[in-house]
Amino acid sequence: MKHPLFAAVLLLALAHPLTAAPGDANPSMNPDAGGTPATPAEKNNPFGFAGMGKERPKDAKTEITAKKQATFDNTANLATFEGSVVVKDPQFTLFCDRLVVTLNKERKGMKLVEAFGNVVIVQENTDEGGKTVKSIGRAGKTVYDPATGDVILTIWPSMQHGINLQKSTEAGTIMKLNRSGKSDTVGGSQTVIVDTGEQP
Fold it and tell me: Distance between CA 100 and CA 116 in Å, rounded?
């Protein structure tokens, strides 16, 4: 069953509520919400997207906007969004060409989220000095497992946290982030970490 998002608004009653909203001609690259304080893991990891694993605010809602279509398959518990997809969540903002959300059988939460094509994840956190620091992940494909908090970026992935940058040097590189703030990269990559502290 297909529903153009220009005309329909869908609210799925989930533990991680998901809302499909009408298409926005000019979606912003900045999350609506202000930065959140950095966790100890984020402070120790120059590429931490640990906020995806943080506890979600009570009654948090995820809004998904797509310009082409949304398809809902009740039998397979799948929701597919296509065309300049924008996901606005209290913990991050995600942009991609196509998004596939697999719901739990009880439809009380998301089982798996897969983003395809020109994937960009933007997250804002506040450092110890109160300054907002933006973390940006890019990839051809990204998979998010809400149960574990793991985020896996594939197909030329890269991660930027403030002025620090890690990018793949081959298409097959895999970058994995988890809720503890730990990141693992398998495959060729280049890392640039800028030391802005004063030297003794």
Answer: 8
Residues 6+ apart with CB under 8 A from 76: 102
Q: pLDDT of 99-129, one tens digit each?
A: 999 988 877 778 899 999 999 998 887 777 8
Which among 104, 103, 35 has a CA at the least distance from the CA of 72?
A: 103
CATH numbers and ranges of domains, the chain: 2-192 (2.60.450.10)
Pairs from 146-149 (Cβ < 8 Å, separation ≥ 24)? 146/16, 146/109, 146/110, 146/111, 146/112, 146/113, 147/111, 148/178, 148/179, 149/52, 149/53, 149/178, 149/179
Nearest CA to 137 out of 82, 109, 174 is that of 174
Distance of alpha carbon 200 from alpha carbon 194, whole angstroms: 17
Q: What is the pTM of this model?
A: 0.69
- pLDDT tens profile 1-52: 333 322 222 223 233 344 444 444 443 333 333 444 444 444 444 444 544 5
Q: Collapse the DSSP code of 41 into the 3-class scheme (helix H, G, I; strand E, B; otherwise coil) and give the result.
A: helix
